[in-house]
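Recall that a protein's primary structure is simply its ordered list of amino acids. Everything else, from secondary elements to tertiary packing, is in principle encoded there. The following example makes that idea concrete.
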Amino acid sequence: MLLTIRAAVSGTDLGYLLHKNPSRLHTFDLPFGKAHVFYPHLTETVSEAALLVDVNPVGLVRGSGGGEGLLDQYVNDRPYAACSFLSVAIARVLRSAMAGASKERQELADQPLDLEARMPALPCKGHPEFLRELFCPLGYSLTAVRLALDERFPEWGDSPYYSVTIAGRARLRDLLTHIYVLTPVLDSDKHYWAGADEVEKLLKRGEGWLATHPAKEAITRRYLRHDSRLTRDALRRLLDDEAVDPEANAAAHARTEEDLERPSRLWEQRIGAVVAALRAEGVGSVVDLGCGEGKLIRALLEDRGFERIAGMDVSWRVLELARKRLRLEQMSPALRQRVELIHGALTYRDERLSGFDAATLVEVIEHLDPARLAALERVVFEFARPRVVVVTTPNSEYNVRFPTLRVGAKRHDDHRFEWTRAEFSRWACATAERFGYAVRFLPIGPEDAEVGPPTQMGVFTR
């Protein structure tokens, strides 16, 4: 079985990232065969590394005490199709790269790169769209070509194998981790026994992305070989992690900041300013990203000009609260068909976000780690690509005007950053230029002559 990784870096850099010298072949003994690492393509700007795993199915059977078993114990797809053995090889041979460690090139290991991974034979015995459901929400583009059972005999039909290429901008450690977890998910004949230690491996490798993946239930169930007890345990722990995710604290964030902003009823001014900006742009459909308890959705429903409204949030709990507060179950059919609540994360590509005239991010971006902003930018401005995007965020310069806020503190403990007007302008202008938008800035709330407004808003249009 073969995995190739192409990166927009020099051969020297890729060698440091993978901890394997590009000038020679590297061979490793594994319990089920051998693994080889080599570099088929090296230039100063683009390089390619290959991991070739040579599985010995005969040795596997004999080593396990299987003796002379059925023919399929010896004649199978194990040496050719990417499977759980590939994950083991990645973990053992590319352990340091998957951990994100690089003594000589740590800065490079920590930054997203233009990467492409190809697996010439990847099994997918379910619906082929399952491949897209697994990889595309992680921000990758995917090309999958189904392979024939035998090209010499087209009447035999297609095989359950695909030549798969995924490409995107990501850290090398993330790409390797995603392949490590998702390859066994597609393998219906895993070689390992699923136990409590496999739950720990899944949670460790899925940290930071699995809890918010739209297909996390299917991934967890299939990774753990459909063991219902282990699956329930893993999902329970994932949901516990979700509860402390930065994006999952929208309700608590709203309550805490409302205490701070209550004298000026800033949240009402914020909602009013966003709705006014959307009306001015003449949009008919809006998706509110990080919708929280649904305050903006409620305001949009009051205007018949907004014919289609959706709210997305990473937390099921917050969405259920929004459902109750919006009284969705009690709405008239005509009103109910205008609104939809979506569970999903803002840092993963999601086809459900396509087709809207406008997207809003109201007091959301400051809850993301700065390193994750690039993923959000691509999800919103490159993949969903609405005609209008409205972003609001606190103006940190105004914090000195809140009498109860200690010096140097953020408005909420969950804020990963709070930008000055200049910082927000730099980010917004760079994002607009990168993705082909224009942006204008509007103040929200009482504007102070020295420190500006409490909330700053950017309206992106194309």
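DSSP finds 17 helices and 14 strands in the chain. The radius of gyration is 25 Å.
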